[in-house]
Amino acid sequence: MSRFEDLSIGDVVDGEVSGVVPFGTFVRFADGVDGLLHGVTGLEVGAAVTVRVLDKDAERRRASLALA
């Protein structure tokens, strides 16, 4: 997994599904940081996924993601 600080918008990274909620799926992809795949709910916890970083909030250590 990548370091959160090294990620840029547009990067494609591998991660693991860490949670599924009604509004989307959380993916752990960097240094224990979870990003949100908004609107994606068909994945299972523990599944390996490849995601693209759409937005990054360095102060809150959060990211918006899309399936790559």
UniProtKB/TrEMBL annotation:
Span of domain S1 motif: 10-68
GO biological process, one term: translation
InterPro entries, per database record: NA-bd_OB-fold, Ribos_protein_bS1-like, S1_domain
Coiled coil: none
Record keywords: Ribonucleoprotein, Ribosomal protein
Gene3D superfamilies with a match to the protein in the record: Nucleic acid-binding proteins
One of the Pfam families matching this protein, by short name: S1
Residues spanning the signal sequence: none
Molecular function GO labels: mRNA binding; structural constituent of ribosome
Any one Gene Ontology cellular component term annotated for this protein: ribosome
Record-linked SMART domains: S1
SUPFAM superfamilies, per the entry: Nucleic acid-binding proteins
Protein family membership: Belongs to the bacterial ribosomal protein bS1 family.
Name of protein: S1 motif domain-containing protein
